[in-house]
């Protein structure tokens, strides 16, 4: 019978739901893999590309806010700090200018009527 080669590999699993955590614990109980806790600081080194994407996100949000377009607030993420420290000049310029282009091409600066789900289902305008 073929036995796959066992290798020692470090993986990080982040569970964002109770169901995901239950799935993870069940896999540990069935000896699919071994789990040990880690300090939260390890995430930034393991997900370096994600930090760069978050930095570019700050540039896009800044361009949208400059044009007075509503944007979500991301609390707890140091998006500006990542944008200033980790992103190259090219990434900074591209994140902002490409968003200005998208705003112009898609006419995101125009006000639009928004209907609630309830009124859309009922066929009524607010």
Structure in a nutshell:
With 126 residues, the protein is an all-alpha fold. The protein has helices at 18-29, 42-46, 48-66, 79-85, 89-105, 117-122.
Succession of helices and strands: HHHHHH
Q: List segments where confidence is low: pLDDT < 50 over at least 5 consecutive residues.
A: none
Q: What is the multimeric organization of the chains shown?
A: single chain
How would you describe the shape?
A: flat
Distance between the termini: 67 Å
Tally the helices.
6
Radius of gyration: 22 Å
Mean pLDDT: 79
Biggest beta sheet attributes: none
DSSP strand content: under 5%
Structural class: mainly alpha
Query: Could you give the count of β-strands?
Result: 0
The helix content is 40-55%
Characterization of the model:
This protein has helices at 18-29, 42-46, 48-66, 79-85, 89-105, 117-122. It has 126 residues and is an all-alpha fold. Among the domains are: 13-39, no CATH class; 47-105, no CATH class. The longest helix has 19 residues, at 48-66.
Topology:
Blueprint: H1 18-29, H2 42-46, H3 48-66, H4 79-85, H5 89-105, H6 117-122
Helix pairs in contact: 3-4, 3-5
List key phrases describing it:
single chain; 126 residues; mainly alpha; 6 helices; flat
């Amino acid at each position: 019978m073929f036995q796959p080669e066992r290798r020692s590999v470090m993986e990080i699993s982040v569970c964002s739901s109770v169901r995901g955590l239950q799935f993870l614990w069940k896999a540990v109980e069935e000896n699919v893999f071994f789990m040990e806790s880690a300090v939260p600081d390890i995430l930034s080194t393991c997900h370096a590309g994600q930090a760069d994407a978050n930095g570019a996100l700050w540039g896009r949000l800044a361009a949208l806010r400059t044009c007075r377009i509503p944007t979500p607030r991301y609390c707890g993420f140091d998006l500006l700090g990542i944008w200033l420290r980790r992103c190259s000049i090219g990434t900074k310029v591209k994140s902002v200018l490409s968003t200005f282009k998208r705003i112009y091409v898609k006419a995101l600066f125009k006000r639009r009527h928004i209907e609630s789900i309830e009124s859309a289902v009922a066929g009524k305008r607010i």
